[in-house]
Specification:
This protein is of the alpha+beta class and about 750 residues long. It is built from 25 helices and 24 strands. Strand 3 and strand 4 form a beta hairpin. The radius of gyration is 42 Å and the shape is elongated.
């Protein structure tokens, strides 16, 4: 007894020691009593001290609250899959290794009454030495790092990255048993309630398991939800759906069964005895029919939880489109088939497989800010890691759905680590490249591409705005209506093939709608010269075209901005210079009248049928962009002060109104009607050029006065509207000139 007491004391010293070596001692009767172990059944039980860092880790896991405790099941299933991989690998050279348990599986058995969850695998199993070394005495190199990460606020789901995923079992269990059998050793039980030590015993109690490991979790009182069938199924579907081995769940089902109703029979017999017997002679004697009743019996069955096999591990040539369709629907819950699929693998320094799908239609919340940033699920060696990894794919491709399975990323890599992970950057680059290839393949089928472009053109344009590396390739996918395309959309490549020899630029106009830009005065001269103009009427076009400066060596040029090159010959240039000189007095006078409303007034050949237009500076906002920015609910109003472009009023020297106004200014600079007509011209050009009116009521007042003039209504007959901007009313000049001014 003295010997035993001394040994028990020594054990306690070891448990508290802070060093990485391990010592094992035969368990004393006192320890056996404390742990309620049957000493007769387990005569060879041994106790070991946890290595100090592991003991601290377990204490941290047990005593800290974590919301996502469900990851314990992912970790244990992942470890089970690794064990199955090892035995399968060994069986390649020695098939006899599988004889102890030919079937490779992972089986979950919940016991609601006992509050126990068993996770069994038929993997390689562990020897006694493995149990001692792997589960407690030799600290993994990542144990300390993981504890430091936890202290810094990292997520518990990182645990597997540091090689200590097994200990996540203590998130939900207060005692864990590991029953294991290796081909080269006997069956053992590892057990610990995380009190600083663990025991290992040769198993003489449980049924022989042949080969493999059973992790037996004695769940805490408040963690029994993990015994519920639905909860287990949800966790497996979320985290371990594509593990390469069948994950089975033992479920209890009630079945109805017909049995003889003995009570009814006894009652019938008693009734028959009380009645007098009357014998009847009958050729066909009635058969004695026994009454039956239906009873419910409980029956245990195994259900396979991961029937959707990892399609990406197979050769794409062997997979039918129907298989891709069913996989896509299982992955996304979409009711329609996918539009296109890209299945590929990358090998070399980096190894990963991926299947990417394009849906047929855009989701209603495609650009919703609170929505998940992408729809690519990240797996590491077929174990689900996360489905919202922002580093995996750019936001403009958030409509692409699929999976990526990496062989190189560490399991349970944290979000913080992902941001700096070089492997992920290479994966991202490859994914974007393959997706753009997929877009190119769809473009070959006009009908499918039209569906795709209608749904996701905004994403392509957003890509041009954000992705400088792939901008040129994405530009090939752009489609627009134009002055020559009719009802069909045209690509930039097709536009270039139709360009006249003397045209060197690609012209475009931005606006609110196709109808608004089709009759724009900015197109007049270009149409006459035979130059095609693209209609960019999607608000995002304003953003994308700012980044897309040129295509195939041709500069993109806005027809509503300054610096428009109309490929004029020498005669046209000379004529314009002469007209500038001739109209100099008019342009100066109009500038004086309009003041700060315009930066300058010039003569131009940009228009043919309209008297004037307002053009914006080359580098500021266009009229359409100004309209878009004003519509922003949360806009920064200070930005509009310096981004709103200065306006230039361009006059058409060939137009009768401009010529008449020139004569009127030449005759009398101080003619008061000049000011009113100038304002009217300015405001009409604001509207026709795509701007909004600063003072709609003032404009309406001027129009009303013109109407009265046309109807020969005397100004004095009607109460005069308030003067706007100190503009005098139209004076009653010679009747012969009044309508000329209106013209």
């Amino acid at each position: 007894m003295a010997c035993h007491a001394a040994m028990a004391g020594k054990t306690n010293m070891i448990v508290g020691a802070l060093h990485s070596e391990f010592v094992h001692l035969p368990i004393s009767r006192a320890v056996a009593f404390r742990k309620k172990v049957d000493i007769k059944a387990m005569t060879d039980q041994e106790t070991f001290a946890f290595q100090a860092e592991i003991s601290q880790l377990m204490s941290l896991i047990i005593n800290t609250f974590y919301s996502n405790k469900e990851i314990f099941l992912r970790e244990i299933i992942s470890n089970a899959s690794d064990a199955l991989d090892k035995i399968r690998y060994e069986s390649l050279t020695d098939p006899s290794k599988l004889e102890s348990e030919p079937e490779l599986f992972i089986r979950l058995t919940p016991d609601a009454e006992g509050k126990v969850l068993d996770i069994r695998d038929s993997g390689i199993g562990m020897t006694k030495s493995d149990l001692v070394n792997n589960l407690g005495t030799i600290a993994k190199s990542g144990t300390k790092s993981f504890m430091e990460a936890l202290s810094a606020g990292a997520d518990i789901s990182m645990i597997g990255q540091f090689g200590v995923g097994f200990y996540s079992a203590y998130l939900v269990a207060d005692k864990v048993q590991v029953i294991t059998k290796h081909n080269d050793d006997e069956q053992y039980i590892w057990e610990s309630a995380a009190g600083g030590s663990f025991t290992i015993t040769r198993d003489t109690i449980n049924e022989p398991i042949g080969r493999g490991t059973v992790i037996r979790l004695y769940l805490k009182e408040d963690q029994t939800e993990y015994l519920e069938e639905k909860r287990i199924k949800d966790i497996v579907k979320k985290h371990s759906e594509f593990i390469g081995y069948p994950i089975q769940l033992v479920v209890t089902k009630e079945v109805e069964k017909e049995v003889e109703d003995e009570e009814a029979e006894e009652k019938k017999e008693e009734e028959d005895e009380d009645k007098p017997k009357i014998e009847e002679v009958d050729e066909d004697e009635k058969k004695d029919e026994k009454k039956k009743k239906t009873v419910k019996e409980t029956k245990k069955e195994t259900e396979e939880l991961n029937k959707t096999k990892p399609l990406w591990t197979r050769n794409p040539d062997d997979i039918k489109n129907e298989e891709y369709a069913s996989f896509y629907k299982a992955l996304t819950n979409d009711w329609e088939d996918h539009l296109a699929v890209k299945h590929f693998s990358v090998e070399g320094q980096l190894e990963f497989r991926a299947i990417l799908f394009l849906p047929r239609r855009a989701p209603f919340d495609l650009f919703e800010q609170r929505k998940k940033r992408n729809n690519i699920k990240l797996y590491v060696r077929r174990v689900f890691i996360m489905d919202d990894c922002e580093e995996l794919i750019p936001e403009w491709l958030n409509f692409v759905k699929g999976i990526v399975d990496s062989e190189d990323l560490p399991l349970n890599i944290s979000r913080e680590t992902l941001q700096q992970n070089k492997i992920l950057k290479v994966i991202r680059k490859n994914l974007v490249k393959k997706i753009i290839e997929m877009f190119g393949e769809i473009a070959e089928d006009k009908e499918n591409f039209n569906k795709f472009y209608e749904a996701f053109s905004k994403n392509i344009k957003l890509g041009i705005h954000e992705d400088s590396t792939n901008r040129t390739k994405l530009a090939e996918l752009l489609r627009y209506h134009s002055t020559k395309s009719g009802e069909e959309l045209t690509s930039l490549k097709d536009y270039i093939t139709r360009m006249p020899e003397k045209q060197t630029n690609i012209y475009y106009i931005t606006g609110e709608s196709r109808q608004a830009v089709e009759n724009s005065p900015f197109l007049e001269a270009l149409k006459k010269k035979g130059f095609e103009v693209l209609y960019m009427v999607d608000p995002i076009d304003e953003y994308s075209v700012q980044q897309l400066k040129e295509f195939d060596g041709k500069k993109l040029m806005s027809v509503t901005k300054e610096g428009l090159e109309l490929e004029e010959d020498e005669e046209e240039k000379k004529a314009l210079e002469e007209e500038k000189a001739a109209f100099e007095s008019l342009t100066k006078e109009i500038k004086n009248i309009l003041g700060e409303k315009v930066e300058k007034v010039v003569v131009s050949h940009r228009i043919l049928n309209s008297p004037c237009v307002l053009v914006t500076g080359q580098y500021g906002w266009s009229a359409n962009m100004e309209r878009i920015m004003k519509a922003q609910a949360l806009r920064d109003s200070s930005m509009s002060s310096y981004m709103a472009s200065k306006k230039t009023l361009e006059l058409n020297p060939a137009h009768s109104i401009v010529r008449a106004l020139k004569e009127k200014v030449a005759a009398d600079k101080n003619d008061k009607t000049v000011k009113d007509l100038t304002y009217l011209l300015y405001e009409t050009s604001l509207l026709s050029s795509g701007f909004s009116l600063d003072d709609p009521s003032g404009f309406a007042g001027r129009i009303h006065r013109m109407i009265k003039l046309g109807l020969s209504i005397d100004e004095e007959e009607v109460a005069e509207p308030a003067a706007v901007d100190d503009v005098p009313p139209l004076e009653d000049v010679e009747g012969s000139t009044q309508m000329e001014e209106v013209d």
